């Protein structure tokens, strides 16, 4: 490639980046539920040049981790009131819902408010397992998400100017290592190996999810009214432990578990009505979706390139694990 070609390519790239920055700065995105996931999404949107409105339930609007001087506004809303949220969402291009699993069934008013407010793109609170998989969608823990998917399709069919994108990214790699969701305690050197510990599954860091959300808004036509899958790596429990042992040589203690047995136990809990065991039962359903056979825990195809989410190389995976040793 000649120097003139390189110059022209750099100029075109600069023009594209400037256009993207200008386009994003003219669009305001509302984010509902700014917690462990919502904050990285807000930060990614701000870095991409978007203005952000954080929807809150209370007047205590200060969110830790938001840079001073950031283009952020706060709007106190009633998540059960369409009219309350409609007022807050007027003038917004997009809405990202990161409501927690316990609140995800309450997204219908938010969806309806976004339509009435003239929002163009809605991203529901999915951000996990492939709930379109025939086996995963039958798990009770995903009932509200499956119902929301049907609602989204219904609303989009009736409102051509409104659209949605459902993002699935597997479990959050860094967050799950921090809380021990993968059955691995990196500090105590203990692990529960599910189905032998060799099951491959897709996973993405919280920051990676933020990049994917930005990619959705940057590619509205390619992502319109459909499910998008991304992951930063495909890994196994044993691979995580191998990395941990290289970084912190120690003797590990293991126990074994079968996700099908855990799933059966979870259904028994639901049948018994023991409310104090419900959260544990739901966790077992999620473990089945991530590590069970036939639940789509490893994404066969993804759209990382479209959304601008690079895969983690070996050093990148090791860096994530190292944070929690």
From TrEMBL:
The chain crosses the membrane at residues 29-50. This is NmrA-like domain-containing protein. It comes from Exophiala oligosperma. Signal peptide: none annotated. Keywords: Membrane, NADP, Oxidoreductase, Transmembrane, Transmembrane helix. PANTHER family: CIPA-LIKE, PUTATIVE (AFU_ORTHOLOGUE AFUA_1G12460)-RELATED, NMRA-LIKE FAMILY PROTEIN. The keyword Coiled coil does not apply. InterPro entries: NAD(P)-bd_dom_sf (IPR036291), NmrA-like (IPR008030), NmrA/Isoflavone_reductase-like (IPR051609), PCBER-like (IPR045312). It holds the Pfam family NmrA. GO terms for molecular function: oxidoreductase activity. Residues 1-22 are annotated as: Disordered. Residues 26-265 form the NmrA-like domain. The keyword Magnesium does not apply.
């Amino acid at each position: 490639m000649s120097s003139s070609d390189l110059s022209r390519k750099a100029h075109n790239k600069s023009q594209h980046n400037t256009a993207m920055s200008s386009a994003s700065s003219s669009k305001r995105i509302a984010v509902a539920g700014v917690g462990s996931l919502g904050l990285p999404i807000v930060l990614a949107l701000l870095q991409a040049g978007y203005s952000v409105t954080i929807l809150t339930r209370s007047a205590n609007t200060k969110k830790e981790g938001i840079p001073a001087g950031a283009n952020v506004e706060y709007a106190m809303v009633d998540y059960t009131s369409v009219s309350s949220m409609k007022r807050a969402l007027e003038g917004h291009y997009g809405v990202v819902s990161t409501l927690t699993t316990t609140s995800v069934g309450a997204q219908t008013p938010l969806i309806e408010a976004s339509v009435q407010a003239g929002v163009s793109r809605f991203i529901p609170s999915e951000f996990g397992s492939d709930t379109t998989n025939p086996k995963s969608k039958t798990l009770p823990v995903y009932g509200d998400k499956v119902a929301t998917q049907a609602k989204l399709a219904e609303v989009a069919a009736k409102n051509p100017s409104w659209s949605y994108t459902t993002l699935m990214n597997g479990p959050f790699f860094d967050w799950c290592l921090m809380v021990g969701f993968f059955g691995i305690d990196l500090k105590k050197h203990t692990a529960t190996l599910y189905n032998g510990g060799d099951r491959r599954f897709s996973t993405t860091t919280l920051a990676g999810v933020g990049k994917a959300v930005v990619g959705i808004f940057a590619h509205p036509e390619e992502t319109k009214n459909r499910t998008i899958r991304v992951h930063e790596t495909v890994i196994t429990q044993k691979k995580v432990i191998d990395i941990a042992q290289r970084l912190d040589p120690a003797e590990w203690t293991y126990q074994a578990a079968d996700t099908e047995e855990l799933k059966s136990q979870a259904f028994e809990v639901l049948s018994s009505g023991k409310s104090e065991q419900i959260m544990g039962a739901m966790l077992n359903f999620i473990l089945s979706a991530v590590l069970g056979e036939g639940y789509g825990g490893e994404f066969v195809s993804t759209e990382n390139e479209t959304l601008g989410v690079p895969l983690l190389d070996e050093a990148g995976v090791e860096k994530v694990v190292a944070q929690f040793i």
